[in-house]
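As the work plan foresaw, the team has encoded backbone shapes as discrete tokens. One protein thus recorded appears below exactly as we store it.

:::
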Amino acid sequence: MLILNHPLITPLKIIYADSKETITHSLSRDFLLLCCKDFQETLNLAQFCSQNNLDYAAFITSIKEALFLVNLNARFLLCVNLEFAQKVQKLAESYLFDTKILLCLKENDWKNQEDKLEYIALCGIDGVIFADF
């Protein structure tokens, strides 16, 4: 199970990208998170990242969004709800997604959130990311 952005593990420099300009000014070691006002804008940026072989992550709220982003080579799909993450994870296993499914955990409460890691791992989720989105 991946554990990203935990204080005891190398912290990430999360870049919130809502434009091609932000993406082009990011570094390859940055954690590029697409965060647009609507899903069509996210798809446009995802397509740009895919065409330029850039790793990126995006929040998802539906299976449809997950399927489009997987086909645009997203490296990570972020979920805020464990139940939804489990549904997406099941699809990821059935269709052998290269994309990893991450559950978001609150960074400012990481000590309490750590207690959930074992349960999340037993649920089969690819990983977690500690951040206050």
